[in-house]
Write a structure and sequence with these properties.
This protein is 49% helix and 14% strand. By secondary structure, the chain is α/β, with parallel strands linked by helices. The chain has 3 domains: 13-157, Nitrogenase molybdenum iron protein domain (Rossmann fold), CATH 3.40.50.1980; 167-288, Nitrogenase molybdenum iron protein domain (Rossmann fold, 3-Layer(aba) Sandwich), CATH 3.40.50.1980; 305-446, Nitrogenase molybdenum iron protein domain (Rossmann fold, 3-Layer(aba) Sandwich), CATH 3.40.50.1980. Helix 17 links the parallel strand 12 (385-388) and strand 13. The chain is globular and about 75 Å long. The structure holds iron/sulfur cluster (SF4). Residues 24, 26, 45, 49, 52, 106-107, 138 line the site of iron/sulfur cluster.
Length: 455
């Protein structure tokens, strides 16, 4: 019998993908590892892989992304990378001195079949230092899968239930979102006056301030003692089925911490669900400040409804972000016509289809798709607006469409990673972006008409 990975490879080989709407697992694993305090991500593979992953993250966050590599050469490719990893562990702790090394694999080391637990077990790790790992074969899944695997690896390595009674604290796994989103989720949790442990937490790492002095490990990131303490929390909220649920479920299994998987809190409905879940978990009331923000958002949506109603949208990106954004677009009265993610997974199609059915709509929906197909869909049925990452710009240019850059990677714009799209404040930002894009287009069309009249 074929396992799922083999089936997926055969299926993709037979169909072929052109401009897949995703990148590779280690990118997500590297990003997740950066969310631990004083952690150096380590890529067990060739230098080229590591450079590519660092480059992608550096361009998206516009901050230097630090990571080390096992630097495979032909010898390691043939005889295995054990010697390289052992030498790397020695060198990294001697030269860079992180507290933790988070090792992830690449296509090459996975294909060779390097046995990471045995290699790490036989390495010279200084007494007060930690090395843990996640398997991230890139011929399966996407960068979101890599993020999920590394986050699950954190649970498997660190989380421990040491207390008889669970503590009055909640674990929050934010998923593959920007540090600006993580800060906003933490702001909401603080307003709700609940003690929390967020992991991974890349705020303060990939959005660290300029101080005039270079530090290899900025102040942000989840502390190791907090990661261990996640096993004593009374609940886990894992945001996003694709990026966070596996870690939440692993924690439930390992330490009996109940896991609640919610949609990424983008838009009114998903944010409401997040807040209602916190109430159910034990927060006594919603603070007036949050009620006010929600009220403002609903007011804005009502005031601007006529801009959006009936406008057709094509949206692509990572599954958790696309699902919640699509839900929010429906709340705005917009019509998602083409919805695609590059990350394979049947739940995406099911969730989006149910959402659209509920709204009485039909659309092209696909998981594991590519941008060639997405472009064809748009040619066959044109839309008013395109939402996706930087790679959507080629379609936007070809079809003369406004593009809103949401998701990962956004390589040709700046500041986006500092500003949230989650929570009520984030939803206001999305409304502003959609509104500006549609109105700019309308202004331009009107100007063109005036020009034609003059001519
Ligand atoms: S070889 Fe695999 S791990 Fe390396 S960059 Fe390519 S897809 Fe990613």
């Amino acid at each position: 019998m074929l396992d799922n990975t083999t089936k997926e490879i055969r299926e993709r080989k037979s169909k072929g993908l052109i401009n897949p709407a995703k990148t590779c697992q280690p990118v997500g694993a590297m990003y997740a590892a950066l969310g631990i305090y004083k952690c150096l991500p380590h890529s067990h593979g060739s230098q080229g892989c590591c450079s590519y992953h660092r480059m992608h993250l550096t361009r998206h966050f516009r901050d230097p992304i630090m990571a080390s590599t096992s630097s495979f050469t032909e010898g390691a490719s043939v005889f295995g990378g054990a010697a390289n990893l052992k030498a790397s562990i020695r060198n990294v702790f001697t030269i860079y001195n992180p507290d933790v090394m988070a090792v992830h694999t690449t296509c090459l080391s996975e294909t060779i079949g390097d046995d990471l637990p045995s290699i790490i077990g036989g390495s010279e790790v200084p007494e007060d230092k930690i090395v843990f790992y996640a398997n991230t074969p890139s011929y399966h899944g996407s960068h979101v899968t890599g993020f999920s695997n590394m986050t699950k690896g954190m649970v498997q390595h660190f989380s421990t239930a040491t207390e008889e009674e669970k503590k009055e604290q909640v674990n929050v796994i934010p998923g593959f979102v920007n540090p600006g989103d993580m800060r906003e989720i933490k702001r909401i949790l603080s307003l709700m006056k609940i003690r929390y442990i967020m992991f991974p937490d890349t705020s303060g790492v990939v959005d660290a301030p300029m101080t005039g002095e270079y530090v290899m490990f900025p102040e942000g990131g989840t502390k190791i003692e907090d990661l261990k303490d996640t096993g004593n929390s009374k609940a886990t909220i894992s945001m996003g089925l694709s990026a966070s649920a596996d870690a939440g479920l692993a924690l439930e299994k390992k330490c009996r911490v109940p896991n609640y998987t919610l949609n990424t809190p983008i838009g009114v409905k998903a944010t409401d669900e997040f807040i209602m879940k916190l109430l159910k978990i034990g927060v006594s009331k919603v603070p007036a400040e949050l009620e006010e923000e929600r009220g403002q958002l609903v007011d804005i949506m009502t005031d601007t409804h006529f801009h959006f109603h009936g406008k057709k949208v094509a949206i692509f990106g990572d599954p958790d972000v696309v699902i919640s954004t699509t839900e929010f677009l429906l709340s705005l009265g917009m019509v998602p016509v083409h919805v695609l993610t590059g990350t394979p997974g049947e739940s995406f199609v099911k969730t989006i289809t149910e959402m659209l059915d509920h709204a009485g709509l039909k659309a092209n929906v696909k998981a594991g798709g590519d941008l060639l197909m997405f472009h064809q869909w748009i040619k066959n049925e044109p839309v008013d607006l395109l939402i996706g990452n930087t790679y959507g710009k080629y379609i936007a240019r070809a079809e003369d469409l406004p593009l809103i850059r949401i998701g990962f990677p956004v390589l040709d714009r700046s500041v986006h990673s500092y500003l949230p799209i989650v929570g009520y404040k984030g939803a206001m930002r999305i409304v502003e972006m959609v509104s500006n894009a549609l109105l700019d287009r309308a202004d331009r069309d009107a100007a063109d008409e005036d020009f034609e009249l003059v001519m």
